[in-house]
Here is the input.
Amino acid sequence: MSLQERLVSGDVRALARLMTYAENDYPEATRVIKELYDKTGGAYVIGITGPPGAGKSTLTDKLTKALRARGKTVGIIAVDPTSPFTGGAILGDRIRMQDLFTDQGVFIRSMGTRGHLGGLSRATQTAVRLLDIFGKDYIFIETVGVGQSEVDIVKTADSVVMVLMPGLGDDIQAIKAGIMEIGDVFAINKADLDGADRTKIEIEMMLDLNENREWRPPISKVVAVDNSGIDDLLERIQNHRYYLESSGELVSRRLRNTKQELVSLIRDRVVEFILEESGERFSVDRLVESIASKDMDIYTAAEEILRKIKK
Amino acid sequence: MSLQERLVSGDVRALARLMTYAENDYPEATRVIKELYDKTGGAYVIGITGPPGAGKSTLTDKLTKALRARGKTVGIIAVDPTSPFTGGAILGDRIRMQDLFTDQGVFIRSMGTRGHLGGLSRATQTAVRLLDIFGKDYIFIETVGVGQSEVDIVKTADSVVMVLMPGLGDDIQAIKAGIMEIGDVFAINKADLDGADRTKIEIEMMLDLNENREWRPPISKVVAVDNSGIDDLLERIQNHRYYLESSGELVSRRLRNTKQELVSLIRDRVVEFILEESGERFSVDRLVESIASKDMDIYTAAEEILRKIKK
Here is the structure.
């Protein structure tokens, strides 16, 4: 059987191999997806993000168990752009719940940056699509940190859960603007610690600033390690899903994401194309020499190549 | 006088305004650089990177004072991609050495991510070029964290100082592969703490793995807050500069960086071009619809646009 047939038939080893191809940007992964594109779009994708130490992976694991208890299958992609080469190992070696690893209904894979950041974003999209075709009902994209690159990746999810914890203090101020805005549902984890109510008030105040959005993100208090509040959080995520589906917003959100991904794909390929054709049509190397010798400035050189592309 | 004339004549307020233009990606900044491109290349650019808490900004400040004592002028760009919108404020508000701020020979600017990561990298390059044209002898690019995006930015420097501290333990293992490789000079800061010797041995061991490089990065022990070891560190950076200059490596390193920047510039402009022309030649929106309706997969759509560009 081909890898493609094995993927559709639910062969986990075929999935695992294709996920590795995705991570390494081998064309085999996208070739399979091309063939099976009509099988995409069935999975619901949930992004889990928040500052380091908020307990994102524990929360993801508990949400996964709650979904499993409801008979749903789950894929988890843990994204770690801060570890260019050891990403996979760091997260993979971390002790996640043993029972998740032995559960055939759950597939976990961590992804580090191999090469540049654009690569990680592309690899994550490819991985999501493979899990989708494989037939997973839910896919989590979990980030390690809360930097701009993680935000860009997690934004591609259908619902984004922003995980915070009490006592972040000034940090909440720091991540408030820009990043907080991507949260569709807020989870205050470790809510048994002092300051959970204050954190909730701070989030409410921030949400008050943005009153004219149709969906007001709910705030859920959880203690992930005790499995407390997980059902409530899951319900709020489901509510967001119902809102997206009934309002038509899910379709337009996915259209927006598709457009962005398409433009990124083209961007990456154009770069490959320009570099491959170096010396022939675009002569990048010759232009670089001209820049170095001050015969031309770098912006004019970029415009010259762009002019050739536009023709 | 035009902004351009004021910049060359050493008007700090003109520089400050152009740096703001650079940060916001206004064309005025690049227009001025285009006109004055033959005045670039005189400054020596030093990248300062390392994990949070290693004391990078204190170290940068002390190196700056040491250079000032030698009669050199300095520009500092503090890069913080983890704070998409508050970056400037966070670093700007932080109490840096007061005497640096009042020293006319030093210009400090912090830069956060406004928009996407590519934007920060581009803004940093523009800022470096402005400081270079202004006539600064040395320019520091200092990063807040040590993620892939910071690495990509700091790699554009002539010399990269990797700042570490004792007791990082497993963290050193984590950042060892990939990131550690960009260090041309290592500084163990807070070297009065326990474990400084062990950290040094760990770095040496890592460097032993890469024996066939011509330049073996030296390791300098410093206590930045006490201004201890700063002269030694500066001497090692200068040694690296002499090595680069005498071996011709500085020229080829800058050529490599120019090529990479040129390709990035083209990549960004191609995206603008494709989106502007949407509906006309490339019909991105029509393709997105086809992808959504599964009439076409996203990879084939990307190839279709690329085919038109290649023609």
Notes: The longest helix of chain B spans residues 249-276. Chain B has two domains: 38-247, 262-310. The CA atoms of residues 134 and 224 of chain B lie 28 Å apart.
